[in-house]
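User: Can you recover a sequence for this backbone? Please restate the input before giving your answer.

Assistant: Of course. Working from this structure:
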């Protein structure tokens, strides 16, 4: 751990059972190695979303104290919205925004609050790459779909090699789009215990040479302990 930089792309909760254990473990690593561990905010690090998709229920079942859920969401308010690797790779949970043309603009956004449903912050948390051109409002209810021309322009303006993001299930754990300007990484295997997908981690060396590490779920079955699987996933 002390010799490696770790970057997590968000959605630490609501990906299945054991959300509390996952986020607490990562926060402990962040406390031990504050300059080695970076945790980006995902769209589920939001009170509006994780109250509906399992995390609130898990906190209530585990601690029987709603203040724990609120306290953890207050921590989520401090998570950064994006990261930059060697000034060459832009990392974000969701994607691009029509209101963000340069990387410097991200640092001017107010992240210390519950994300709204419209604007550059929810765009960074919710947007998805698609075939086509330009920006189109997303049918997710927040964020945008964006085309390959947007990725090319954003990379050219900011001097980037490519963009890394998460947010979407991809069956092999990783997927290149937009002429290799956008890489989607998905690290939750067999998502919600029924998707059958592999998961992936990207390892970069000092020269930014890539190695993909893929893995499958330890078990294809739901956890057997009563109350461990949020009702949404059942």
């Amino acid at each position: 751990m002390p010799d490696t930089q770790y970057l997590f792309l968000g959605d630490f909760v609501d990906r299945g059972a054991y959300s509390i254990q996952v986020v607490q473990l990562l926060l402990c690593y962040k406390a031990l190695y504050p300059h080695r561990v970076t945790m980006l905010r995902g769209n589920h690090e939001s009170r509006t979303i994780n109250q509906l998709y399992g995390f609130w229920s898990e906190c209530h079942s585990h601690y029987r104290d709603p203040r724990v859920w609120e306290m953890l969401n207050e921590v989520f308010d401090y998570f950064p919205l994006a990261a930059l690797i060697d000034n060459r790779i832009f990392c974000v949970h969701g994607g691009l925004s029509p209101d963000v043309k340069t990387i410097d603009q991200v640092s001017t956004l107010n992240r210390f609050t519950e994300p709204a449903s419209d604007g550059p912050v929810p765009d960074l948390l919710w947007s998805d790459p698609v075939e086509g051109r330009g920006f189109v409002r997303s049918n997710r209810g927040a964020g945008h779909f964006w085309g390959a021309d947007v990725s090319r322009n954003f990379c050219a303006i900011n001097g980037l090699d490519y963009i890394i993001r998460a947010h979407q299930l991809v069956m092999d754990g990783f997927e290149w789009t937009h002429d290799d300007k956008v890489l989607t990484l998905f690290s939750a295997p067999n998502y919600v215990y029924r998707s059958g997908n592999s998961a992936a981690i990207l390892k970069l060396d000092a020269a930014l040479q890539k190695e993909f590490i893929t893995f499958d779920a330890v078990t294809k079955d739901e956890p057997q302990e009563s109350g461990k699987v949020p009702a949404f996933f059942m």
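That completes the design. The first strand starts at residue 6 and ends at 8.
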